[in-house]
Design a protein that fits this description.
heterodimer, A: 112 residues, alpha+beta, Alpha-Beta Plaits, four-stranded antiparallel β-sheet, two-stranded antiparallel ribbon, 2 helices, B: 476 residues, mainly alpha, Ammonium transporter fold, three-stranded antiparallel β-sheet, two-stranded antiparallel sheet, 16 helices
Amino acid sequence: MKLIIAIIKPFKLDEVREALTGVGIAGMTVSEVKGFGRQKGQTEIYRGAEYSTNMVPKIKIEVVCGSDIVDRAVEAIQAAASTGAIGDGKIFVLDVGQAVRIRTGETNETAL
Amino acid sequence: MKQGWKTAGLVLGAAAIVAAMPAWAADLIKAPTVEQQATMMNKGDNAWMLVSSALVLMMSVPGLALFYGGLVRTKNMLSVLMQVLMIVCITTLVWCTWGYSEAFTSGGDNHFWGSFTTKALLMGVNGGTYAATFSNNVYIPELTYVCFQMTFACITPALIIGAFAERVKFTPLMIFMVLWLTLVYFPIAHMVWYWAGPDFLPDAPTDAGFLFLKGALDFAGGTVVHINAGIAGLVGCLIIGKRTGYKTEPMPPHSLTMTMIGASLLWVGWFGFNAGSNLESNGVTAVAFANTFVATAAAGVSWALVEQFVHGKPSLLGAASGVVAGLVAVTPASGYAHPMTAIVLGLVVSPICFFFVTTVKNMLKYDDSLDVFGVHCIGGIIGALGTAIVADPKLGGQGYFDYTKFPAVAVAPADYSIASQLIIQLEAVGLTLLWSGGISAILFLALKYTIGIRPSVDVEHEGLDISSHGERAYNY
């Protein structure tokens, strides 16, 4: 089992969700996050007081899937989230040791 | 309310009714008794004034509270709302206890404040007593006038808190407000707005406030409300000091949505403030209403244009600030200007206020958190001085009336002098700045060195909501 963590542009969320559904992913967790990478922040001005915000709003998606489909899932996210511009985000893949479905007690891939 | 009035008791006023007067002037009663006054009340006037009173209350809560609240950080939102709400409540009690008497009864030979006792606890004020308007033989119920003026007393101290928002202790602030009302607001209101009324002034030509007798024109409170509160705010923010982290950490507004709602409620409520200040529902009321509409729109546009030129983007906060600056500037001029000169006043005020809240504030390095000085005091001064120009009948203005005559006589257009009126306006502005600035400084310093007026740095970091009130504005 693998955990895919993807940081993407907020407006790309729907496209990424559809792409993942297309490769057989049945669930995901989404968070609104802020961060910075190579993309610069914006400057905000309130009655002459200037603030440069270097934290940019992003969406973080967490998906756990079987090792057999992880490559296809990563490709799907990469293709759907890409705009070609700086700030498109990153994808990380981690190993997962165990999974449990709380309602039934099923474990590992049957719990996904 | 208000005033105007020129030298030795002349004054301005309610042009439409007075202009219609000669035909039946012979029937006018000089110095009518209370029984006669009861027959001189118009139900339309009374209804309008009661509605206006409610509109002005809406300016404070929730209008001003939301306008200010949106501009502070989340952790201090609730403290601003609470300060405004409690100032309104406390002022109401003070007003009924001694404020109305101090502001609106005769001080005899003292023209700076009235009697603390004549109408204390609203003694002698009831459903059968009446207050004068700006027209001979036109009266409104005194309790209507008490309520209308009460709403002005409520909003003026509430304006001050924006200058030192996010860094003030609640109880000392409330103590300051009671003292400030007593020593600053009621006296200034008396000086500008108290007079015996058009049916009584001819027989008692010195029975009026100091600035009224000088002939200062202030239709709805440019000096009494905005300059008065604005300079007190500046003094307060200088004595209390800058917010911890000012200029080193970001302090962006937490909700410009709230600020937009607040500014819009202020605009709507301001019709009661300005047009209501005519005390009747007549042609001059319509003049004040129209001017409050158009000057405000012009100021909103001109602030946005300035930002477009300077920053390349017009901001919502800028447009909302322009709207408020326009309302402030037109306040003293509202019953005197022609709508076109009111528009010019609105176009002029925003660039000047913009210069103060951006360039001057940064240059002098004071932390007027919500720009009470830059918008209300500066805008008020522009309005007070501009009133001398726009009131000129030769420019379509209303001029003023000589209320020492019975019935009152409008100034001849040829006799109106912008220059001499400007000098009177400058005197009124100067006196207000000195009186309010000086006494406010004494009060703030006294509190600072006794019970303290500023919370600890830890409390400031945590936010005033939790530390002063034990709750948060938002629990998601």
